[in-house]
């Protein structure tokens, strides 16, 4: 990831830049091990909602690439995958796309939440969508429900904590 230092004063550009740095770290960790289709699929699954927030079309394309990945050499598949993956993350996650992700995440709790909890989460998502609340507010509640109800698929989702909270990147409205 590369960004001009003057552009880092823009909160969304700064967050995108730092998010890509942490993605690169996870990518390097993945590539320090033996390259396999299975490990790449696990990486993809963990980053599903990150990709959805940046570029849903690439999420779908990469899913197809992995589904058809058996005939390709693992090193070639990794290279082709990462080229498209990092290109997608260069696109800024928008409020509309983040709202879509939040609604998808809310679906994991539809059987668990009572009417008041559903309303509260919907209201927080709507507040974020209307630019009245920072992204961290609905994400924090989703994280709370993920810890409480423990849906397996959300346990490893990078979207819920793409970087250390101390960086306070999702706090801007």
Description:
It is a single chain. This protein has 173 residues and is mainly alpha-helical. It contains nine helices and no strands. α3 crosses α4, α4 runs antiparallel to α5 and α7 packs antiparallel against α8. It starts with 10 loop residues before the first helix and ends in an 18-residue tail after the last helix.
Strand-helix topology:
Elements: H1 11-31, H2 37-46, H3 48-54, H4 56-67, H5 74-89, H6 95-106, H7 115-129, H8 136-149, H9 152-155
Helix pairs in contact: 3-4, 3-6, 4-5, 6-7, 7-8
Query: What is the helix fraction of residues, given as a range?
Result: 55-70%
Structural class: mainly alpha
Number of strands: 0
How would you sum up the global shape?
Answer: globular
Report the total helices.
Answer: 9
Helix/strand order: HHHHHHHHH
Percent of residues in β-strands: under 5%
Features:
173 residues, 0% strand, mainly alpha
A few lines on this structure:
The chain has 173 residues and is mostly helical.
């Amino acid at each position: 990831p590369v960004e001009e230092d003057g552009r880092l004063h823009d909160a969304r550009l700064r967050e995108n830049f730092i998010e890509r740095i942490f993605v690169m770290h996870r990518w390097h960790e993945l590539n320090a091990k033996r390259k396999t289709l299975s490990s790449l699929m696990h990486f993809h699954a963990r980053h599903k909602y990150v990709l959805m927030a940046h570029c849903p079309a690439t999420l779908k394309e990469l899913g197809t690439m992995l589904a058809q990945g058996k005939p390709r050499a693992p090193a070639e598949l990794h290279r082709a995958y990462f080229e498209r993956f990092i290109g997608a993350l260069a696109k800024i996650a928008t409020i509309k796309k983040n709202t879509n992700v939040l609604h998808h995440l809310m679906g994991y709790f539809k059987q668990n939440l009572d009417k008041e909890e559903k309303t509260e989460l919907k209201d927080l998502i709507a507040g974020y969508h209307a630019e009245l609340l920072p992204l961290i507010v609905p994400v924090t509640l989703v994280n709370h429900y993920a810890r409480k109800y423990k849906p397996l698929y959300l346990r490893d989702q990078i979207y819920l904590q793409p970087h250390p909270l101390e960086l306070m990147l999702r706090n801007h409205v």
